[in-house]
Amino acid sequence: MIIKYFSWIREHVGKSEENFDLPSNVTTINELIEHLNGLNNQYKHAFAKRDLIKIAVNKKYSPFETKINNNDEVAFFPPVTGG
Fold it and tell me: CA–CA separation, 38 vs 30, rounded Å?
C-alpha cells in the first residue's frame, strides 16, 4: 500500500509518502489510522484532528469506513479551500 500525506499532516508525520504493508487485522481507514497512531507520537499528532482530515482511496474521496487492502493508494489531507 502507498500512503500519501499532505499539508500539516505531512509536517506531523515527517514524510510525504510511504510504502506500507497492512497487518491482517487492518481492513478499513479507521483501523489504519488506529494502527498508525500506535506506531509513534508523530502519527498521533497528525491524526489528532481526525474530523478535519479528508481521505482518498485510489484517488476517490472516501469515508473512514472504506475497506482497504495492500494494493490501494490512500491519501490523507486537510480540507481544500478555493479562492
Answer: 13
